[in-house]
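Readers of this paper often ask what the protein records in our data store actually look like. Such a record has a labelled line for the sequence and another for the backbone structure tokens. Nothing more is needed to write down the fold, since each code stands for a local backbone conformation. The record that follows is passed on verbatim for readers who wish to inspect the format.
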Amino acid sequence: MGVIFRMALRNLSQHKAKTVIIGLFICIGVMIVNLGNAFLESTNRGLEKDFRANYTGDIVVAGRLADNTKFDMFGVASVSVSMGDRQPLPAINDIDKVQTIVDSTKGIDKQTKSISAMGYFRTDAVGDDFDPDDDAQMDIPYFFLFGVEPSTYFKTFSSMKITEGTYPSTTENEVLVDVRVKDRFAKYYKIPLNLGDKVLVSAMSAAGTTREATVCGFYEQPDKNSAMTSLVYCTPSLARTFADLTYGAGYAEELPQTVDTKLGTLSEDALFGETSDDTSNDDMFSDSGDDMFSSDTSVMSAKDVSFDNILGDTTLRDKLNQTDDGAWNFIILKTDKTTNVKKTIATLNKQFKDAGLDAQAFDWKTAAATFASTVQGISTLFTALVVILAIVVFIIIMNTLTVSVIERTGEIGTMRALGASKGFVRKLFFTESISITLLSATGGTLIALLIMVIFNAFHLSVDGDIAKMILGGGSIQFIPTLLNIFGTILLVCIGSSLANIYPVSSALKISPLKALSQDGE
């Protein structure tokens, strides 16, 4: 083996041009792959750390949609392009039974509940004819609205940095506002948003639900480079209004078969102003002026008619439109350090199924799919680019080796004439290929590590919610791992070996005599 290795190094030295060309392609390819893998590793780790610590916890328990449509803590996956078509998130049915199962599960360290919706701020201070500046059109103060359980939520997620004010109260319509929303509000409406101000919270839906709330405080995200977009925290009752968590939505299956829809006890003639003894003025727009708004016998002028019950009994309707005080979208769980999250999720889902409950448990990545999917998309794109790069490099290496082997046909013939077996020749070329691959891959890895050290030293970051969401965070960092580094080198060595098979096999098909004669030409 030592003889083959020395011969391989001598041959590489004698064919420097081809060695350098192949080495450069391998070196650059390995460098790019290592940089990409390190960036994706940093992004995934940062996203997971941020969301598990501050938003999703380790496990999230939720209900199910009737058609099993996928959703996360920030909306339904099948959202239409029109914001008016946003489908509300499901409530957890039989939440007391679900809670009992959660409480009996081992390894749960902390837990809380939340409600999720989406909205934006309006204000009466600017008037109905308000028209924002052209450069402020993209600064409408929108946000995800989180209704939280005050007694547990801010203990479960305690890293929030309140800059002014306090947490929302348990009784009043109060909102704790992200400072980014505060800045957008000021830019969009051209007036400041201050502590104690009254704002109108409007739904990002066709329903157009609007409620007045008081600004109780402002806060900053725990991680300034977080991919999380703006959040506004509020009392659960306020969030339920926007999340469609009413008694009607939660208990539609319990509605009676018949509902009183008649217009009270008024007759059609009484309602539209026609009397039995006077048919001369049956046209509401007649010239005589005896229409439904002026006739002494019309419903609009009758003194003895009560309009309170004109729509019949509305008690049931009013009850169904009330927010369900016990409804929640999510139960958020944090486990202790010794708990296996995957096993706990599987255990919870089995217990929900055995109990016949329409509930499910999933991990942080599913709970934050709106954000994690963008990183996954970048990862998929990078993988596709790496595959394309690998194919191109593979073809170039194979072509270069083919030319090199053809030029060395005489050398191969000489070795065969001197008694070298086909296996010996294959081992020689294989050793040459592996040697140049290992040297080049090592060089590419070292260059990549040097670039990572330089970039990480500058602590570079990007601004803008969109950029942070696409990149999974604003921090540009590289985290190399031994698995990625050695995995890349192994794949490159395999590819180089495969690229060596065809040209060597072609050369070995030529007889030693013919090879020697070709070399003589």
